[in-house]
Amino acid sequence: MSDSHDLLVVGGGPAGLATALHAARAGLDTVIAEPRRAPVDKACGEGLMPGAVRALTALGLEIPGHPITGIRYIQGRRQVQAAFRHGPGLGARRTHLHSALHRAVLDAGVPVLPLRVEEVRQDTTGVTLPGTGLRARWLVAADGLHSSVRRTLGLEVKTRGAGSPRYGLRRHYAVPPWSPYVEVHWGAQAEAYITPLGPALIGVALLTARRAPFTTQLESFPELAARLPPEAAVTAVRGAGPLRQRARTRAHGRVLLVGDAAGYIDALTGEGVSLALTGAEALVANVRRGTPSRYDSDWRSATRRHRLLTDLLVRARQQPALAPHIMPTAARLPRLFAAAVNALA
Ligand SMILES: Cc1cc2nc3c(=O)[nH]c(=O)nc-3n(C[C@H](O)[C@H](O)[C@H](O)COP(=O)(O)OP(=O)(O)OC[C@H]3O[C@@H](n4cnc5c(N)ncnc54)[C@H](O)[C@@H]3O)c2cc1C
Predict the structure, then answer these.
(1) What separation in Å is there between the alpha carbon of 66 and the centre of ligand 1?
(2) How far separated are the first and last CA of the chain, in Å rounded?
(3) Where does the chain show beta strands of DSSP type E?
(4) Most buried residue among 107, 111, 233, 266 by CB atoms closer than 10 A?
(5) pLDDT bracket for residue 2 (50, 70, 90)
(6) Between residues 109 and 337, which one has the greater pLDDT?
(7) Predicted model pTM
(8) Distance between Cα 45 and ligand 1 center (Å)
(9) Maximum distance among all Cα pairs of the chain, rounded to whole angstroms
(10) Residue 125: count of CB within 10 angstroms of its CB
(11) Given pLDDT bands bounded at 50, 70 and 90, which one contains residue 241?
(12) How far apart are CA 63 and CA 200, in angstroms?
């Protein structure tokens, strides 16, 4: 006999937890499958953009962290910065973000089952997880960048022609933040993304197509390496990638994809959590309205601007003829830079 639910969420990261929270508050009987113990950590730049902060506040969540005033690009002695116009962002440890969402989900009465989903079977009325006794009217694939649900259902799309695969590496340093801005340092082969996280904590995320250890990559940013002595490192290096992932659709019968599982371009513009939260809300709204097939077009229109800007920037970054012009152009056109930052924020 199957234990049948309205919504079965595979993956308890920000996308899955936010989906479950919206669903439970809408009165849907919801369950989450997440094999990792809370709080879950992950390679992330940990800069919550103002849109993410607003979405978390609307969910009634308070996340401890360090306010972020805007974005600053730096290359050598050249700098350009843009303040956020519609409220601050927040530098927040992933573990804090996860704990707040996880607690809210439990408070809403949603069980989080310690389960890694291997196989999904759908029919016209619902989805079953073989061998678990679990069944639901809808399954939400929120299982991240390398979503096994997306792969198993044949929804993965190859990302040929999009440049060399890019990866992210992150580490934390017990160093007081020197700026309330997220700094993006442009190196020849990588970007270093510095996020203030607390009175004496910063996060460093390196984004690159180069395969080399974190410390080797950091050496190509001598001014940063000088501020980040190895003895100040307080976490192990975590990595993720390849970053660019595409899904054929976000609505496949009774399976709906959200967060990184729904498709991801790059961490360069730091909007992954915002998009996960936006997607979660759109998904649940469509399930509630009984219009699940509209979710894919709602997702595409809600994320279009972010996808276009991030794609443009990453493609320019990967073109040898264009890459050297990104920073000089941003510095020459600070209003355009500010408009782009605030369009993303
Ligand atoms: C280097 C780097 C820097 C980034 N910087 C930022 C930033 O500054 N700001 C920002 O907003 N975003 C940033 N992002 C993106 C952000 O981390 C993601 O967009 C966000 O975590 C997506 O959330 P998610 O819930 O979709 O996926 P995840 O956070 O990856 O969660 C997926 C969950 O699914 C679970 N899971 C996986 N497989 C299964 C399975 N088979 N069964 C059950 N559960 C499963 C995993 O254990 C995990 O908990 C960055 C990403 C990288 C790689």
Answers:
(1) 21
(2) 47
(3) 3-10, 30-33, 47-48, 66-68, 70-75, 78-83, 89-91, 112-113, 121-122, 127-129, 134-141, 156-157, 167-173, 181-186, 190-198, 201-208, 238-240, 246-247, 251-252, 255-257
(4) 266
(5) low
(6) 109
(7) 0.96
(8) 11
(9) 67
(10) 9
(11) very high
(12) 17
| Whole-number Å distance between alpha carbons of 310 and 301 | 15
pLDDT tens digits, 188-213: 999 999 999 999 999 999 999 999 99
Tally of CB atoms within 10 A around 289: 10
For residue 42, the CA-to-ligand 1 centroid distance in Å is 7
What Å distances lie between residue 38 and 8, 94, 313, CA to CA?
A: 19, 11, 34
Q: Round to whole Å and give the CA distance between 61 and 64.
A: 10
Atom of ligand 1 nearest to the CA of 116: 42
CA–CA separation, 55 vs 53, rounded Å? 5
Cα 104 to averaged position of ligand 1 atoms, centre (Å): 18
pLDDT of residue 1: 43
**Ligand 1 centre distance from Cα of residue 52 (Å):** 14
Q: Cβ(94)–Cβ(65) under 8 Å?
A: no
**Paired tokens of 84:** 């956020």
pLDDT at 220: 95
Q: Cα torsion at 254, 259, 263, 268 (round to 10°)? A: 180
Q: What is the pLDDT of residues 86-104, one digit of tens each?
A: 999 999 999 999 999 999 9
Report how far ligand 1's centroid is from the alpha carbon of 34 (Å).
12
Measured from the CA of 170, which atom of ligand 1 is nearest?
Answer: 1
Ligand 1 atom having least distance to the Cα of 273:
11
Per-residue pLDDT at 320 exceeds 90? no
Beta partners for residue 173, in sequence order: 202, 233
pLDDT at position 137 over 90? yes
The model's pLDDT over 138-188, given as tens digits with 9 standing for 90+, comes to 999 999 999 999 999 999 998 876 788 999 999 999 999 999 999 999 999
Atom of ligand 1 nearest to the CA of 169: 1
CA of 19 to the centre of ligand 1 (A): 14
